[in-house]
């Protein structure tokens, strides 16, 4: 008991970091988000005619985006979700800079009945790291 009292801050940090690590591994799955890698995204785009939904801000989008991507910033997705209605039954690859905003977007799409929304793990950063092209 004395050890725990003397090291309460260290124990708190240890438990908190462990919980954050678990959340990073399982958080998206718990929210119903399906993460995919760049190769899988390419398969969906090229062979299943998936829509690419970019949820970054316009300035980020203009700096470089996937060919034919549709821009709807995350902050406007809820009010503009009707624009995606005709894509409801289609696969949608959702992307942002790193995969965090797109995971939130996928969770929102899932709640609205879009059952084939896929989060591009690592976002545009992973896309570029894989040597895949962006257009400006």
Explained architecture:
The chain has 136 residues and is an alpha/beta fold. The protein folds into two domains: 1-30; 32-129, Rhodanese-like domain (Oxidized Rhodanese, domain 1). It is built from seven helices and five strands; from the N terminus they run H-H-E-H-E-H-E-H-E-H-E-H. Strand 2, helix 4 and strand 3 form a beta-alpha-beta unit. It is elongated, with a radius of gyration of 18 Å. The mean pLDDT is 89.
Summarize the structure.
With about 140 residues, this protein is of the alpha/beta class. It has two domains: about 1-30; about 30-130, Rhodanese-like domain (Oxidized Rhodanese, domain 1), CATH 3.40.250. The chain has seven helices and five strands; from the N terminus they run H-H-E-H-E-H-E-H-E-H-E-H.
Total strands: 5
Helix content: 40-55%
For the CA atoms, what is the radius of gyration?
18 Å
CATH architecture assignment of the largest domain: 3-Layer(aba) Sandwich
Along the chain, the helix and strand elements come as HHEHEHEHEHEH
The secondary structure category is alpha/beta
Strand content: 5-15%
N-to-C CA distance: 61 Å
> What would you give as the CATH superfamily of the largest domain?
Rhodanese-like domain
**What does the largest sheet look like?**
5 strands, parallel
The number of helical segments is 7
Q: Averaging pLDDT over every residue, what do you get?
A: 89
What topology does this entry show?
Blueprint lengths: L1 H5 L1 H23 L3 E3 L1 H10 L3 E4 L3 H6 L6 E2 L2 H7 L11 E4 L4 H12 L5 E4 L2 H7 L7
